[in-house]
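1st attempt posting a full record on here, be nice pls
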Amino acid sequence: MGSLIYFNSASLDGYIAGPDGRWDWATPDAEVHSFVNELVAPARVHLYGRKVYEVMKVWDDLALDDLPAAEREFALQWRDIDKIVYSSSLGAVTTRRTELRPIFDPVEVREFVDASPAPVAIGGGRLASAAARAGVLDEVHVVVAPAVVGGGTRFLDEGLRLDLELFDQRRFANGFVYLGYRVV
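the predicted structure (as tokens):
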């Protein structure tokens, strides 16, 4: 039986992008990027909303020779996973191994995750919040960046209530901190 895991980076005040839409303050160094690669590698399927997909699709055709080792490893991982994009406004997807669905159906997702031999990753605060509200989110993983950005796109929706149990943590030399939680 698989599990539905949400991973993202966030500022100390809980944002994945600042008020200007930028997230350069959360850019991982090689140590953090390698850790994230290892963390998400078991997931063979990733679920995305439109905005996250539009950010992530750059990995599909970046020139690998131009990338540092950790980024090259992530690009190869991303190209080798199946992706499901939930969007009613996106007309088509342009990346390999990607399927477009008009709506997020939590019952279908729970059945799919339960039948999966590996974890399924979900990307983006809004989609993860929808999964949490529907009771299908199993784990929350966050790399907290040493920054306070004062507003923007939230890690999880305001008003969402989740009880969590810490099962993993790690501190990095650059001041970033990883926290892994199970939803209880």
